[in-house]
């Protein structure tokens, strides 16, 4: 019996040695040393930014100021910029705007200047539009100033002629009808004369012409008209030279 118990005891000891989870006979369970130690956390590493590879501090500051999130954003911005700043192959590609009433000769010449200077198409067209608007404003201001000056000249002439204003004006109109034409046909010529002489001097000129026309003394300088002598008035003589057909 003693031998049997001893054999069973040996068997149990062998089993306990093979199974570490089985506590020894008559004792407390063995301590679990493996589960009590927490795993060691791996150190966190941050991936380097694509800007960190740029060595030039000025270029890096430029990129930071633009706010590009990736190299693709920077390349897209570069592509857009290149599309806006491309230089055309020829001056004809600019197609600069031409103001109404102009023949476009200046626009053609300006396009050559733009191409020589390497100006992109969009910028060239914007400059041309600004220039055309400026020229239109200048022309409008000049027309207004000329109109105001003409009104002032006529007011001064009305004061100078006094009660003879209407009669003198009619003599001038008669000269215009005889030498220049009637209605709209006389407009362009009168505008040229008025631009050169001013409104008051134009009125005076045609008044004198009309006066000599009524007196029958208007003839080319050195010539004769019905036996009359050449006009002594220099304005009338100039009118005779300007309109020689009236003496024929």
TrEMBL record:
Composition bias type Low complexity, residue spans: 24-48, 227-241
Q: Source organism's superkingdom? A: Bacteria
Positions of the UniProt region annotated as Disordered: 15-53, 216-248
Protein name listed in UniProt: Phage protein
Species this chain originates from: Bordetella trematum
